[in-house]
Design brief:
Its main location: membrane. Keywords: GTP-binding, Lipoprotein, Membrane, Nucleotide-binding, Prenylation. With about 220 residues, the protein is α/β, with parallel strands linked by helices. The protein has one domain (about 5-170): 3-Layer(aba) Sandwich (Rossmann fold), CATH 3.40.50.300. The protein has 7 helices and 7 strands. It has helices spanning about 25-35, 80, 95-100, 105-115, 135-145, 160-185, 190-195; strands at about 10-20, 45-55, 60-70, 85-95, 120-125, 150-155, 210-215. A 7-stranded mixed beta sheet has the order 6-5-4-1-3-2-7, with helices on both faces. Strand 5 (about 120-125), helix 5 (about 135-145) and strand 6 (about 150-155) form a beta-alpha-beta unit. The radius of gyration is 16 Å and the shape is globular. Bound molecules: guanosine-5'-triphosphate and magnesium ion (MG).
């Protein structure tokens, strides 16, 4: 299938993955886009992205999912990473408390660079590692509630809730988009992006852009 613009798609949504290094962002993406998991995955350098077409409420949506390095020194320019993003999965590792404690830092960045109406889901990944859990589910859920975020625990390894978390995000984006267009509140540029006329993929400011998969 075409790797950039698919005429059969009704919408194109850009979404991003953020969170500390090693929490499993790249594996969540490869599980969702290609049904692949790697125990020996290397830290991401720069930015990568993948596509997947999803049917939501009778509409075909092309999700363009961006993945970046959790490590500061490998990250590409932040503003271009967030530009045009309509949703984010903010991921922490349930077996690493520090990755959970850093969620507030990621939220600050998200609020600085992301759009106001972004759909954000807080994701506690590696739920298969129950023996070494350091963050209780209720803790993550409670924090998400206080910050007005959705919440889900996932396992990229065991393929638990991966499909669900992406679908929940895309569905919410779709509902918001539809509501907006009904209210006539969308500006012209945004409508162009959604209808696929303008696709922000290879921004000049992004240093390393590699396509991981297209379905
Ligand atoms: N047990 C378990 N291990 C996982 C899971 N998801 C990812 N991992 C492992 O965690 C390690 C880091 O995963 P990555 O997906 O590379 O993490 P990342 O967040 O992309 O890291 P950066 O690219 O450095 O930001 C790898 O060894 C993965 O195999 C999971 O759900 N369960
Ligand atoms: Mg990665």
């Amino acid at each position: 299938m075409d790797d950039t613009y698919d005429e059969d798609c009704d919408y194109l949504f850009k979404v991003v993955l953020i969170g500390d290094s090693g929490v499993g962002k790249s594996n969540l993406l490869s599980r969702f886009a290609k049904d692949e998991f790697r125990l020996d995955s290397k830290p991401t350098i720069g930015v990568e992205f993948a596509y997947r077409n999803i049917k939501v409420r009778d509409k075909l949506i092309k999700a363009q999912i961006w993945d970046t390095a959790g490590q500061e020194r490998f990250r590409a320019i932040t503003s271009s990473y967030y530009r045009g993003a309509m949703g984010a999965l903010l991921v922490y590792d349930i077996t690493r408390k520090s990755s959970y404690e850093n969620v507030s830092k990621w939220l600050l960045e998200l609020r600085e660079f992301g759009g106001q109406d972004m759909v954000v889901i807080l994701v506690g990944n590696k739920s298969d590692l129950v023996q070494t859990r350091e963050v209780e589910k209720e803790e993550g859920k409670g924090y998400a509630e206080t910050e007005g975020l959705c919440f889900m625990e996932t396992s990229a390894l065991k393929n638990l809730n991966v499909e669900e978390v992406f679908l929940q995000m895309i569905t919410k984006i779709y509902d918001i988009t539809r509501q907006r267009s009904l209210e006539g509140k969308m500006d012209e540029k945004q409508i162009n992006v959604l209808s696929g006329n303008e696709i922000h993929i290879c921004d000049d400011e992004v240093t390393t852009t590699k396509q991981a998969n297209c379905c």
